[in-house]
């Protein structure tokens, strides 16, 4: 049961970090003069990239914890 709590809290933390990173990327894109749709697209791409990196790190480290 405690393992489930660690997994859920880690997943929540990763989503929060991805959201904050995406918001920062969107804000920087907007400050750089991008239109709102372009800024949202950059933010979405950043969000997806952070989740992809987190999944890759998880997959790489999984054999060490099983």
Structure description:
This protein has helices spanning 2-31, 36-65. The protein has 66 residues and is mainly α. It has a domain at 20-57. α1 (2-31) runs antiparallel to α2. It starts with a helix and ends with a helix. The relative contact order is 0.12. The mean pLDDT is 95.
Describe this protein with a few key phrases.
mainly alpha, 66 residues
Structural class: mainly alpha
Round the Cα radius of gyration to an integer and report it.
Answer: 15 Å
Helices and strands, in order, run as HH
- Helix-residue proportion: over 70%
- Roughly how many Å apart are the termini? 16 Å
Report the principal-axis shape.
Answer: elongated
Share of β-strand residues: under 5%
User: Sheet with the most strands?
Assistant: none
Number of strand segments: 0
Sequence stretches where pLDDT stays below 50 over 5 or more residues: none
- Give the number of helices: 2
The average pLDDT value, as a whole number, equals 95
């Amino acid at each position: 049961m405690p393992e489930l709590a660690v997994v859920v809290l880690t997943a929540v933390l990763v989503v929060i970090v991805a959201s904050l990173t995406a918001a920062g990327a969107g804000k920087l894109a907007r400050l750089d003069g991008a239109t709102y749709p372009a800024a949202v697209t950059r933010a979405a791409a950043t969000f997806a990239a952070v989740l992809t990196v987190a999944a890759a790190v998880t997959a790489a480290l999984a054999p060490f914890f099983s």
